[in-house]
Request: fold
Amino acid sequence: MAELLALVDDQMPDNPHFLFANWFEAAQREPAAEPTAMTLATVSDEGRPASRIVLLKGHDKRGFVFYTNFESRKGRELAERPVAALTFWWPWIERQIRVEGRVQKVKESEADAYFASRPRASQLGAWASSQSRTVSGRAELDREMQAVEERFRDREVPRPPFWGGYRLHPDRIEFWQHQDQRLHDRIRYCLEGTDWVRERLAP
Ligand SMILES: Cc1cc2nc3c(=O)[nH]c(=O)nc-3n(C[C@H](O)[C@H](O)[C@H](O)COP(=O)(O)O)c2cc1C
Reply:
């Protein structure tokens, strides 16, 4: 599929995953940029929203994968309410993509394979950090890291049971493309049954 610089109504693909892949490829052509960074929004069981940046580690027709600590704030919120929203902003190509849907943990085997591909320091960091808990100071983190280095000295670091991936299965994806005179393009895809329904929204 050729790159779509404007979202022309009768040239849009029926499946938004093709358009995501097309734009993601365009975004990756800028070497200094980090197109995998995305805002992840979750909501607590009292309905309080929270957002933070995580990195996209996989995308296909099933959805969008990220990795984190299951006991972090986001992990606890996803356990209570397994729904989330993602936002990508790629200013160097003047585009935004918004994604919403249900979230499921990825299979253990998939998480193991990804964890094994990470640098050793990141693997040790996953064990050392009780993400989102309060700590007494930097020294406590350094002590945790030393203890973990000692524990796994001269052996492979296994994936912690409290760390893994989530896949957001989208039922809504919106593409935003800057256009002149502020009449930006907005195309939203909504999943109805097994079909994606496409609509244009006013900017
Ligand atoms: C560029 C960037 C990338 C990040 N990637 C991740 C990530 O992939 N997974 C993760 O758990 N946290 C990542 N973080 C840290 C999160 O933004 C956040 O601080 C952390 O996950 C704790 O969030 P929580 O307390 O809401 O669970 C990243 C932060 C930045 C700035």
About this structure: The radius of gyration is 19 Å. Residues 135 and 141 are 8 Å apart (CA to CA). The chain has one domain: 9-118+161-200. The chain has a mean pLDDT of 95.
